[in-house]
Write a structure and sequence with these properties.
372 residues; alpha+beta; ibrinogen binding protein from staphylococcus aureus fold; Helicase, Ruva Protein, domain 3; four-stranded antiparallel beta sheet; 16 strands
């Protein structure tokens, strides 16, 4: 089960603007890290589900059972009857703040949707009144009576992205040995999944080092990162696997082209489906497999450094490998299409992928030959 990314919080907070003017009728603790807010306004009822550190969304699922802990009692006493004044994303990060007023006093709830997650109630001066978890970090302390200080900014946020800013950041690391995805993730706070998609959409290898990328490719990559930010929220999608939600996204993700897709009316509905109906059981196994694959990739990368000193035959093999990685998204889509239709002919496959030359489809040997 994966957590929410900063760009998804950006879209979510836009949706939650509709909560302004609602009153908090009640607060519920449904289990460890699970909470619900019941809101109302002019007869309209809305429920907000929070699962730390994964999500905070409008929900249609009302979970049964209620814990009456000291935390629950303290929070309910403080916020019941309060009016929601504002919903904001803090520092462009995975933090949502719901500001409220009650009896002439100001306050707020802070939802930290990263690491182990946290739920805090702060007063009008920004001091912590109630904390689900007391924590101490190098630069901040989460404890009753302390001023709430969010983590330091992790780079430019979705609302700040421009082609020029991203390009400037990339050029500042043009000699870096870091991989593209890791490097950009440390500078642009939108989420590794979307950064990887931007890299692939730019026709680049996610494992490539920043210093190996030329100026033209950097410009193309900066454009793809900007496109992701500008299109966030335009294609709210739930990806299905074996009839269950497998993942979700706020813009198109190319690596999921082979999966069944369902459009979501709101991000809250996508989050509701993912965290209540799914994710698919196989995802835990897939995550573990991904870790093993990443370990293998690191090992291969080290071997490549040695092989780079060898003659032209190795250089030619590497060039072919790089060409495959550039087209990995469409190759995966071709494989998925053949898995779904095991009787597909060469001509049928060619119509689906006109941009790639299909040389042969051998149904007996279960192989496909393409020219890239």
């Amino acid at each position: 089960m994966r957590g929410i990314s900063a760009i998804e919080v950006y879209v979510l907070v836009k949706e939650l603007q509709r909560l302004k003017g609602f009153y908090i009728d009640n607060f519920y603790e449904a289990g460890e890290n699970r909470f619900r807010l019941r809101l109302s306004k002019s007869g309209e009822k809305v429920d907000i589900f929070c699962l730390l550190p994964y999500t905070l969304n409008v929900t249609d699922y009302i979970e049964k059972g209620e814990q009456k802990s000291n935390f629950y009692i303290a929070v309910r006493r403080r916020i019941a009857g309060a009016r929601i004044d504002e919903v904001t994303q803090v520092n462009g990060d995975r933090i949502v703040k719901i500001a409220f007023s009650k009896g002439g006093e100001q306050g707020g709830m802070v939802f930290e949707l990263f690491a182990k997650g946290n739920l805090l109630v702060i007063d009008g001066a920004g001091k912590i009144s109630i904390a689900y978890r007391s924590r101490e970090f190098k630069y901040r302390e989460i404890r009753t009576g302390k001023e709430y200080v969010p983590p330091e900014s992790r780079g430019i946020s979705a609302s700040e992205i421009s082609k020029e800013k991203v390009l400037g950041l990339l050029e500042g690391k043009e000699n870096a040995d870091d991989g593209l995805v890791k490097s950009i993730a440390g500078m642009v706070n939108i989420g590794a999944n979307y950064i990887e998609n931007a890299v692939l959409s730019a026709g680049l290898d996610p494992r490539a080092k920043v210093k190996s990328v030329d100026r033209k490719s950097m410009e193309r990559l900066a454009e793809e990162v900007l496109r992701c930010a500008e299109s966030a929220g335009s294609e709210l999608t739930i990806y299905m696997k074996d009839g269950k939600p497998f993942d979700y996204s706020v813009c198109s993700i190319g690596k999921y082209n082979g999966l069944e897709k369902q459009r979501a009316e709101t991000l809250s509905k996508a989050l509701d489906a993912y965290y209540h109906e799914g994710p698919a059981e196989e995802q835990a196994e897939d995550d573990e497999t991904a870790k093993k694959i990443e370990g293998i990739r690191v090992s291969i990368e080290r071997q490549k450094d040695v092989l780079a000193k060898m003659d032209g035959e190795v250089a030619e093999a590497r060039a072919k490998g790089e060409e495959i990685f550039k087209n990995i998204s469409v190759i995966n889509s071709i494989v998925q299409s053949l898995k779904e239709n095991k009787r597909m002919t060469k001509e049928e496959l060619q119509k689906l992928f006109p941009e790639i030359k299909i040389i042969d489809v051998d149904l007996k040997e279960k192989t496909v030959t393409i020219d890239i």
